[in-house]
Amino acid sequence: xxxxxxxxxxxxxxxxxxxxxxxxxxxxxxxGWRAGVIRAVTHRDNDNSELTVYVExxxxxxxxxxxxxxxxxxxxxxxxxxxVWAKRNECxxxxxxxxGPKAKQIQWPALVSTNPPITHLMLPRPxxxxxxxx
Length: 134
What we know:
By secondary structure, this protein is mainly beta. It has one domain (about 15-130). It has helices spanning about 70-75, 90-95; strands at about 15, 35-40, 50-55, 65-70, 75-90, 105-115, 130.
């Protein structure tokens, strides 16, 4: 069961990668990923090349929100698309490290992110499943 996507950007979670170094798809786990929430936007049209968003990054205090230019400041900018139930190993969901063929799988809420045209790479759709915290 999935919840229908919201067309607006404000309030959505995002994942992004900035920098000038070329990104290698095989090293996707090593990219400098950051996550956060969009708090305000300058345009309703997501395709506007001057789109600027006011973001709150997860790794910074909320007082350190900032305006960023989506099409200039990032190599990849992924938006939450849907909330879904996805399979996850029970131990990793509860903070353990048990993995392998005997790990019990459970359904866990997860955000599926899509790849809007705010990237310089051809990534598959949907791109990311990020599990919510317990």
